[in-house]
Amino acid sequence: MIGKDLALNPLTLKQWQRFKSIRRGYWSAIALVVALLLSAGAELLVNSRALVVSYQGEWHFPTYGDFIPGRTFGLDYDYETNYRDLKRTFSGQGAGDWVLMPPVPYDAFENDLKVGVYPPYAPSITSRHFLGTDTTGRDIVARLVYGFRLAFAFAAILLACNFAIGIAVGCAMGFWGGAFDLLFQRVIEILNNVPFLYVIMIVASVIVPGFWTLMAVMVFFGWTGMTWYMRTSTYKEKSREYVLAVRALGASSTRQIASHIIPNTISVIVTFIPFSIASGITALTAIDYLGFGLPPPTPSWGELLSQGTRHLESPWIGGSVVVAMVLVLLMVTYVGEAVREAFDPKQFTYYE
Amino acid sequence: MTSYFIRRFLLIVPTFIGVTILVFAVTRLVPGGPIERMLQEAAMAGSDVAASTSGFAGHGASSLSDAQIDQLKAYYGFDKPVIVGYAEWLGKVVRLDLGTSTRYSEPVWDTIKDRFPISIFYGITTLILTYSVCIPLGIVKAIRHKTTFDNLTSAVVFFGYAIPGYVVAIALLTVFAGNLGWFPLSGFVSDDFDDLGTLGKAADVAYHAVLPLIAYLAGSFAVTTMLMKNSLMDNLAAEYVRTAIAKGMAFRRAVFAHAFRNSLVPIATSFGNNITLIVTGSFLIEQIFNIDGFGLLGWESLVERDYPVVMGILVISSILFMVGNILSDICVAFVDPRVKFGSGESSQ
Description:
The complex is a heterodimer of chains A (352) and B (348).
Chain A: H1 2-8, H2 10-21, H3 23-40, H4 42-45, E1 52-55, E2 58-60, H5 83-93, E3 98-100, H6 140-176, H7 178-192, H8 196-207, H9 211-222, H10 224-238, H11 241-248, H12 253-264, H13 266-290, H14 301-310, H15 315-343
Antiparallel strand pairs in A: 1-2, 1-3
Helix pairs in contact in A: 2-15, 3-15, 6-7, 6-9, 6-10, 6-13, 8-9, 11-12, 13-14, 13-15, 14-15
Chain B: H1 2-29, H2 34-52, H3 66-76, H4 82-94, H5 108-143, H6 148-162, H7 165-179, H8 198-236, H9 239-246, H10 251-268, H11 274-280, H12 283-288, H13 294-303, H14 307-335
């Protein structure tokens, strides 16, 4: 039903066409979606587990699920099979067994150490460390890919929480006004006057956060931005004729807000999505960089950045993550600009 | 209007109490607070020592006696309930006593005071550079809208908008300091700074300042430039400029005498917030370039769990932040006499 509404709504259609006509935003959106899909299936592309193992005519798919002990493949140990070694063993035996590894045969946590040489190792195609390794011998491509997935997921969940609270509280403030509005104005004023990054650092230094605690802390200090915008636009919409009309028809407050006011403020909400994603990624990376974010060994861009600045003699560490971050943030911002243009076209009447 | 600003200044007090009590409570109430962390770390260090020196048996190295823990708690003021502790702390702050740094064993204010000059140097330089670059650039971009110059600079501006300052800082550090070696890796001055002449000193400071300044600029540059451009374009398209030109005024004069003044209003809305940047710098950029300013002090004191300094920095930065917001409003009222604060629905 909703899909049908969206498809038939001429305004939505027009916005979508306007969005599509902004080429760099449109292509960035496609590129981002592809990157997200690829990273969602990252286990198939960047992983130390093999994609397919053919052993004595039987096929194994070790990517997902429990680990397969080495004995299954005729090795002499019970812990997880080392598929890179297995591949070498099989090709040495020439018995028709084979192993198909992912393009990058490393995961984000294993330390691929070599005898007699200390990490970080420079990028090399032969060892399949395409961007080299970090200071403990973990593959940088793997850290980047899994770090991207985590940072994007973090930013998306953060956005969902902030928006849920922001929209609910903001609408209520704008709709009811009065004491409720005043109370939350004070609360928002306090939270807005907190030096955000510093307070997060203080809290994180005390509680040593995991994924969800860090999220909770950031939501606690971050929901106010959206709230303020929603309050303003609800306040504006509330006094317009169509809301007066439905109220005169006897619609309840919930109905007025949910089916009339929010759909009309959707452009505010949608316009903020890309920029909130960008700021979520930026904030998480900054906190990780400063060492107060997700605990190691979580793959994190911030942690890679901090390794990069401490090991300038290995420029591939800092270089790869800076390039990755620039690319992702540029694309997200291009999408954001295009969305803003599509929803709120600012027609410049400029002097000629 | 005056009453509005007086009320805003008075509102600093409850907001300040709200902010500090929040952070104060967090440092106290959360399980695994500073003392527990300290004990844990001591225990880990102890067991490391015990493991490495084979002569001692492992036991006993990890735990402090209860009396010692109580002493430690009393030393940090953790022996009292949160409200009492907070009231005592606040009472001291009101008397301008921020307590004693546990790391340096000197008054917190002295520790913080030493770091101000460096942050202020960067802050003021960034401020001057930002406005002296962004305003002219914004004007030129508005007048030459959609020309090659406009499009080229837009690309740079967009880049600065999308990429946060600290990523720019790390990129600069990696390329120009680490790889090419053109600029120093870190610090505010060289080690032999005291032996240099006046000119040499100035050159030394400038040499160390190039990369951090670019990083600072990257943060504030894009927003200000685009603000200037867009608001000037809006004003140029306005009726009053059209009228002025129709009456025979030269274009140049119409831009600078009429449109320009009015388009400074949006710029003024963020002017007061510069005070925060001037004094407190940036945690990230100071940490990246190892500049011994206010931000780096905040980071170090957190890492070292020097909570009196942490709270002291919070006090100063949140007061500055609030004063900055009010200053911005004063600036707006000053540039734009039409603005009336405090009547009816608030400015939003």
